[in-house]
Automatic annotation (TrEMBL):
Lineage: Eukaryota, Viridiplantae, Streptophyta, Embryophyta, Tracheophyta
Transmembrane segments: none
Pfam families: ACT
PANTHER family membership: ACT DOMAIN-CONTAINING PROTEIN ACR2 (PTHR31096:SF50), ACT DOMAIN-CONTAINING PROTEIN ACR4-RELATED (PTHR31096)
Polar residues compositional bias, start-end: 163-174
Residue span(s) of domain ACT: 91-170, 320-399
Region (Disordered): 163-185, 210-230
UniProt keywords, alphabetically: Repeat
InterPro entries: ACR1-12 (IPR040217), ACT-like_dom_sf (IPR045865), ACT_dom (IPR002912)
Protein name (record): ACT domain-containing protein ACR
Length: 429
């Protein structure tokens, strides 16, 4: 259990949750109260394996990061990337109307411009794409000047707006310098920016094309929809709006919801968080920063939709591919091209540089948004052979799949094409 007492300020709860989340700690239970200018949080946290924290070094670090006397403003831990000088690289952010192969087109465009992608994170949800990437000029030791950066952004804008139709807002399909804090960032800083980008392109609204032709709902999709609910009621006596959230439990869930409410300019005065039986229950007493509760049905509906989107956008269905290879300019472009040519669309990507290697994790589905046809993949395997790749048919952050379905070899399907790209792929564990 961790108790934090401090003078209150807007966003302080998010800062504390960010510190705990960046340490890969799971908040299993929490009580928050911040009236009359004072802030008190009580958190029950576990490590990433679900165990109680007993390592005194970890305990000492939490005290140092949040403030040992309980009054200090939380200090954010720098990300634990092997690339220690991300702050010297150029960070760009991209938003666009998602389409099959778009992430591959972005990767190809940066490769054509001789840009090395040192780190990148991309989310897609409701036919929108958001991406934050750290790039360098051919090597991680060569920074990109502002003039060249403008040329890169212009080229990427052409790619992002390739299918823009008359009447669409081109500002929702653009590349520009990333709106991240100065200096070394943290993973939650990047994830918060991805949430903000998705919010800016209104991924909480279902596009007209998906309303007209919705993709088939898979069994796990249906379970997720049934398992999550967001409702808002009024507390007239105290002048609060009460947000109730029930969702399948997963890591970083509290970060996602607190982040969204904070960025929508709502102040959380009281909250309770609990998890039981694989589900998480969150209750937030909120007001807008102007001191008003949610008075209209349209405002309540928007908050409900935005919180539902915040819960959904991190959850990725489908096949997870993990690849590790010697880093070079154009590597990501080659990998994503192979995926695209095999009818696979990237719905989420996390790319990092560790030493001289590029470590890539992709969630993929077919270009229609459906689960990958395993029979089709197996029919190709016998023709091509095997390659060591870590592959899991999994939905992120939820309970493990059954042993019989947890893994299958997609590596053989891609071997002949990937071996032309690099001979240094290794299995990730």
């Amino acid at each position: 259990m961790w108790q934090i007492d401090s003078v209150n300020k807007q966003g302080l709860l998010l800062e504390v949750v960010q510190v705990l989340t960046d340490m890969n700690l799971t908040i299993s239970k929490g009580f928050i109260s911040s009236d009359a200018g004072w802030f008190m949080d009580v958190f029950h946290v576990k490590d990433e394996r679900g165990n109680k924290i007993t390592d005194q070094r970890v305990i000492n670090y939490i005290q140092q990061a949040i403030g040992s006397n309980g009054l200090a403003t939380p200090k954010v831990k720098a990300r634990s990337s092997s690339v220690s000088h991300l702050s010297e690289l150029k960070a760009i952010e991209m938003t666009g109307k998602d389409r099959p192969g778009l992430f591959s087109e972005i990767s190809a465009a940066l490769a054509d411009l001789q840009c090395n992608i040192v780190e990148a994170h991309a989310w897609s949800h409701n036919a929108r794409l958001a991406c934050v990437a750290y790039i360098s000029d051919q090597s991680i030791d060569t920074p990109i000047d502002d003039q060249r950066l403008h040329a890169i952004e212009d080229h990427l804008n052409t790619v992002l707006r390739a299918t823009t139709t008359k009447g669409e807002n081109s500002n929702q399909q653009e590349a520009k310098p990333a709106g991240l804090p100065e200096g070394e960032g943290t993973m939650t800083n990047v994830e918060r920016r991805l949430h903000q980008l998705m919010l800016s392109v209104r991924d909480f609204d279902t596009p007209a094309e998906l309303v007209k032709s919705p993709r088939p709902i898979s069994e796990s999709d249906d379970e997720e929809r049934k398992g999550s609910s967001v409702s808002i009621e009024s507390c007239l006596e105290k002048g609060y709006s009460i947000v109730n959230i029930r969702s399948r439990d997963r890591r970083r869930l509290m970060f996602d919801t607190v982040c969204t409410l904070t960025d929508m300019q709502y102040v959380i005065f009281h909250a309770s968080v609990d998890s039981s039986g694989g589900y998480a229950y969150q209750e937030y007493f909120i007001r807008h920063v102007d001191g008003c509760a949610l008075n209209t049905e349209s405002e309540k509906d928007r908050v409900v939709k935005c919180l539902e989107a915040a819960i959904e956008r991190r959850v990725c269905e489908g096949v997870r591919l993990e690849l590790c290879a010697h880093n070079r300019v154009g590597l990501l472009s080659d990998i994503t091209r192979v995926l695209r040519e095999n009818g696979l669309a990237v719905v989420r990507a996390d790319i990092e540089t560790q030493g001289e290697n590029s470590v890539n994790a992709f969630y993929v589905r077919d270009t229609s948004g459906n689960n990958v046809d395993l029979d089709f993949l197996r029919s190709m395997k016998g023709e091509i052979g095997a390659i060591d790749l870590a592959v899991m048919e999994d939905t992120i952050n939820y309970q493990p799949t059954s042993p019989g379905r947890s893994k299958f070899s997609i590596g053989g399907i891609l071997r002949s094409q990937i071996e032309r790209i690099s001979h240094s792929f290794i299995a990730t564990r």
